[in-house]
């Protein structure tokens, strides 16, 4: 060998630039339709949510951006919110619109049969774009909750045409350095049809809009048994994977801690990502979390989540790609499978702790956070007011 780069000598070197975006709503209370449990110290406003998100980054070095949601995170001065975030070592990530909490949207928002309601939903995105410009965010994230509950309720085809027109108006309002990210979801809140139910529909709309329109893959938004890593590969191949909403699902859109239900699936996803070098920042893929912590502590839940994503990425980086390719080309079925499993079964926890220590971070972020006294401090400080939650 005549030359070597750090990534040749250290297979995990790319982790230095790998980051994960955390959602502001993960720090507020959430629950099911049966019960929302409250916790002491839960943030009461966007400022306190960002302060909590800052803790996740401070203890892991992995989460330098926070997604915000409009209007849940509406403040009088977004420039000030962004500057507050910067002071805490984080920045504002994607801006999420809200098309599901307004009475006008009973029959849909961007697809509503009423042009006046569609115009209102489009105008909301102009407001979100203003928030992006004030905060320095570059990603407008649209999860479209529109759909129908009964066959015949509305024309499936007409709803697609309305959606295409509405998205066109929004996309045309974006600047050259801004992206429109379109999420898909198989069901809920509607149960007969969703207007963006799958990656194909999202991709078709993105392709029609233009280069800066990309698909968001939420890992909880598919039918059971869906091969999600195949979708990841295909969207990367098309240059249209904009972001992930990572979480775990056992049944529906569970929004549990990523990597808790099926760590092997997370590894398989990250293997496809690493195979196409999409873990590097220049790929433009934003690795976001979309989770809620209904019964567990929220900041530790987020710390655990970002560590799980990092761990899966580390294992994916350890795949011996030369050996894998050789086995694949030789038709060595079990040999190729074995190469992948060797990486997955490697215990990387010590290696990752060493890397954290070398970077001046705690070896055990969960323990360090527990010992920091932050949770007790905010529980004592955050008295009065209304705790933030799903919807505020
Ligand atoms: C809803 O099911 C989607 O996963 C959304 O991405 C997300 O939960 C929402 O944007 C938060 O409002
Ligand atoms: Zn999502
Ligand atoms: Zn979801």
Automatic annotation (TrEMBL):
Stored Pfam families: AP_endonuc_2 (PF01261)
Molecular function terms, GO-annotated: L-rhamnose isomerase activity; metal ion binding
Keyword Coiled coil attached: no
Domain Xylose isomerase-like TIM barrel residues, every copy: 69-253
InterPro entries listed in its UniProt record: L-rhamnose_isomerase (IPR050337), Rhamnose_iso-rel (IPR013457), Xyl_isomerase-like_sf (IPR036237), Xyl_isomerase-like_TIM-brl (IPR013022)
Biological processes per GO annotation: L-lyxose metabolic process; rhamnose catabolic process
Entry EC no(s): 5.3.1.14
Top EC class for this record: isomerase
Keywords tagged on the record: Isomerase, Manganese, Metal-binding
Name under which the protein is recorded: L-rhamnose isomerase
Species this chain originates from: Nakamurella leprariae
Origin organism lineage: Bacteria, Bacillati, Actinomycetota, Actinomycetes, Nakamurellales
Gene: rhaI
């Amino acid at each position: 060998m005549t030359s070597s780069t750090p990534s040749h000598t250290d297979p995990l070197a790319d982790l230095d630039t790998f980051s994960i975006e955390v959602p502001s709503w993960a720090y507020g209370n959430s629950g099911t339709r049966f019960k929302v449990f409250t916790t002491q110290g839960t943030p009461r406003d966007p400022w306190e949510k960002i302060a909590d998100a800052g803790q996740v980054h401070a203890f892991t070095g992995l989460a330098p951006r926070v997604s915000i949601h409009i209007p849940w995170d509406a403040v009088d001065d977004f420039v000030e919110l962004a500057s507050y975030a910067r002071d805490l070592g984080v920045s504002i990530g994607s801006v999420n619109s809200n098309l599901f909490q307004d009475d006008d949207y009973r029959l849909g928002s961007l697809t509503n049969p009423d042009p006046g309601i569609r115009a209102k939903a489009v105008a909301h995105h102009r407001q979100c774009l203003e928030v992006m410009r004030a905060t320095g965010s570059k990603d407008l994230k649209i999860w479209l909750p529109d759909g129908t509950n009964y066959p015949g309720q509305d024309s499936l085809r007409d709803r697609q045409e309305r959606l295409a027109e509405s998205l066109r108006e929004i996309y045309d309002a974006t600047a050259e350095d801004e992206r429109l990210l379109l999420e898909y979801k198989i069901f809920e809140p509607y149960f007969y049809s969703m207007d963006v139910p799958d990656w194909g529909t999202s991709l078709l709309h993105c392709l029609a809009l233009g280069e800066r329109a990309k698909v968001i893959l939420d890992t909880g938004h598919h039918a059971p048994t869906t091969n999600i890593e195949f979708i990841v590969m295909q969207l990367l191949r098309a240059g249209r994977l904009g972001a992930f909403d990572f979480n775990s699902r056992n049944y529906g859109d569970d929004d549990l801690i990523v990597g808790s239900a099926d760590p092997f699936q997370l590894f398989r996803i990250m293997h496809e990502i690493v195979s196409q070098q999409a873990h590097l920042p220049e790929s433009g893929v934003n690795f976001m979390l979309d989770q809620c912590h209904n019964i567990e502590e929220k900041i530790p839940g987020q710390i655990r989540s970002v560590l799980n994503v990092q761990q899966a990425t580390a294992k994916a980086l350890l795949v011996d790609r030369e050996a894998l390719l050789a086995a694949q080309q030789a038709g060595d079925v079990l040999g190729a499978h074995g190469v992948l499993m060797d990486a997955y079964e490697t215990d990387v926890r010590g290696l990752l702790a060493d890397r954290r220590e070398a970077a001046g971070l705690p070896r055990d972020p969960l323990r360090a956070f527990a010992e920091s006294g932050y949770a007790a401090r905010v529980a004592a400080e955050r008295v009065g007011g209304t705790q933030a939650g799903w919807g505020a």
